[in-house]
């Protein structure tokens, strides 16, 4: 994509020059996955350096655009995608997921929740409690950590390297987040991608084993993640095993993944 398309007479009836400049930058960057320097943006849009500088700074501040670590290149963040997911597609996903989550909860005797990526972390958009007296649940609307939770790491694992880098660039630590070194996180993502799911002791609560399975889009990348904080009963009601719960969770996630 080069310069922004010229406006037609109909387009110019109600002009908003500042908004147009911002949209021009977003549309331009959408065609350059590796980002662009400020000089390249100025040349492509045929704008003055001062105009582009001010607009870029505002887009970065509002997290629609991210600046490279070196500070010389700009690229789109995932915020526009996250905003899009907040509307009808999310409602559709929840509607499809709810009966499968109810079925999992009844069969596995565990709670489960559905999460999507949202502005640097994981947003819980649906939740079903376990059917028994005891259980653990994550509330709807909660943001959980991208780098230190089962849900977050599964979402990261099933992305392209470029997409994962953008998600991590947007990440902001949530309360109580456990530090996770970059090398360790990358190794974890590779392992999760190879095995197709994650199952490990929770880093947030004692006695909980988190199991997560991705909901994959047609391109094989995660659009959401289904997670269960598995709690093992030690009284006379043993309940389904961890292995059984994992299998049931994987089946539910697979049923939600578009073919």
- Overall average residue pLDDT: 89
**Secondary-structure element order, as H and E?**
HHHEEHHEEEHHHEEEH
What does the oligomeric state look like here?
A: single chain
The amount of helix comes to 40-55%
- Rg measurement, Å: 21 Å
Q: Per the principal axes of the C-alpha atoms, what is the gross shape?
A: elongated
Q: Architecture of the largest domain, CATH level 2?
A: 2-Layer Sandwich
Q: Kindly report how far apart the N and C termini lie.
A: 31 Å
Can you walk through the features of this model?
With 259 residues, this protein is α+β, with helices and mostly antiparallel strands. It folds into two domains: 17-76, Winged helix-like DNA-binding domain superfamily/Winged helix DNA-binding domain (Arc Repressor Mutant, subunit A); 83-256, GAF domain (Beta-Lactamase). It is built from nine helices and eight strands. It has helices spanning 17-30, 38-45, 49-61, 79-85, 88-108, 150-157, 161-170, 182-195, 242-256, and strands at 65-67, 74-76, 112-118, 121-128, 143-144, 198-201, 209-216, 222-230. It has a six-stranded antiparallel beta sheet, with helices on both faces. The chain has a two-stranded antiparallel sheet with strand order 1-2. Helix 5 packs antiparallel against helix 9 and helix 6 (150-157) crosses helix 8 (182-195). The chain is elongated and about 75 Å long. The two termini are 31 Å apart. Residues 1-6 have low confidence and may be disordered.
Task: Give the key terms.
Beta-Lactamase; 6-stranded antiparallel β-sheet; disordered N terminus; alpha+beta; two-stranded antiparallel sheet; 259 residues; 9 helices; 8 strands; Arc Repressor Mutant, subunit A; 2 domains
């Amino acid at each position: 994509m080069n310069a922004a398309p010229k406006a037609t007479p109909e387009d110019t009836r109600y002009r908003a020059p500042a908004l147009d400049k911002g949209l021009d930058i977003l549309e331009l960057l959408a065609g350059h996955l590796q980002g662009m320097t400020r000089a390249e943006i100025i040349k492509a849009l045929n704008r003055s350096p001062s105009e582009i500088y001010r607009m870029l700074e505002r887009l970065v501040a509002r997290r629609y655009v991210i600046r490279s670590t070196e500070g010389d290149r700009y690229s789109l963040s995932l915020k526009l995608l996250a905003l899009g997911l907040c509307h009808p597609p999310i409602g559709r996903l929840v509607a499809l997921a709810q009966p499968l989550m109810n079925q999992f909860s009844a069969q596995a005797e565990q709670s489960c929740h559905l999460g999507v990526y949202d502005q640097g972390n994981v947003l819980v958009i649906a939740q079903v409690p376990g059917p028994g007296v005891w259980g653990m649940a994550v509330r709807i609307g909660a943001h959980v950590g991208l780098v230190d939770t089962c849900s977050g790491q599964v979402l990261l694992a099933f992305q392209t390297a470029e997409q994962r880098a953008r998600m991590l660039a947007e990440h902001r630590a949530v309360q109580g987040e456990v530090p996770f070194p970059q090398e360790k996180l990358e190794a974890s993502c590779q392992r999760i991608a190879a095995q197709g799911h994650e199952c490990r002791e929770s880093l947030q609560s004692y006695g909980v084993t988190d199991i997560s399975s991705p909901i994959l889009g047609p391109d094989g990348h995660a659009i959401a993640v289904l997670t269960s904080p598995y709690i093992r009963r030690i009284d006379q009601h043993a309940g389904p095993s961890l292995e059984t719960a994992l299998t049931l969770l994987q089946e539910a996630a697979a049923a939600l993944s578009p073919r």
